[in-house]
Amino acid sequence: MAKIEINIDDVALRDAEKILHSLGMNTEIAVSIFLRRVALEKGLPLTMAASTSSQAETDLSENSDETYDYEFNQVTRSNNKITPDMVEEVWRSFLRHLEGSGEISQLSTEVSKKTGMNRGSAFIYLNILANLVKGEPNTRTMKMNDLEYYMEKIKKEIGEDKYQDALKSLRLSVPYWQEKLSGNFGDKVEVYCRKHS
Question: Is the Cβ–Cβ distance between 70 and 182 less than 8 Å?
Fold first, then answer.
């Protein structure tokens, strides 16, 4: 992986970091996304704007919606717990993505506006789902209950082939999660895979 060093005004960086935090990401993730989009679009990508609600400025609570991006060692939180309605809206949006009716970035913003789910959490959930059905490993996590729910949805609504791809994705992800996570998430996923293989 390449490493870049950027000189930027302290005030501009601090202001940008506040906005990025409200979107559920850090500077490293934002720069990576920006560069990937430039390469994909062969030009400057569209901007992502944070909502101006006071929620972005409030203190984080223990009952917050929290996901962890272990690739970048970053916690994504909001003051909202992830509710069943949020989980279901992510699923509906993911089905739209599979049909070609929306990019994950745009859909995560829509999920956030509809349900109040942290945009960063919606983005992570949608990316995890995309990797599952492609049989690709994940470095990001979600609540185990939500993962089990989505696995059942994949099996029932998308089909056995994609469910098998999702199991493959989980098996590929387990070693990373077991090494990088300080809990037993990787072990729980491994047990799930054995039970459903």
Answer: no
164 occurs within a structural domain: yes
Provide the sign of the torsion angle of the four alpha carbons 165, 38, 78, 174, taken in this order: positive
**DSSP 8-state symbol, 140:** B
113 in a structural domain = yes
Structural domain count, the chain: 2
How does pLDDT run along the chain (197 residues), one tens digit per residue? 778 888 888 888 888 888 877 777 788 888 888 788 778 777 776 645 544 433 333 333 333 444 444 444 444 444 468 899 999 999 999 999 999 998 999 999 999 999 999 999 999 999 999 999 999 999 889 999 999 999 999 999 999 999 999 999 999 999 999 988 778 899 999 999 999 98
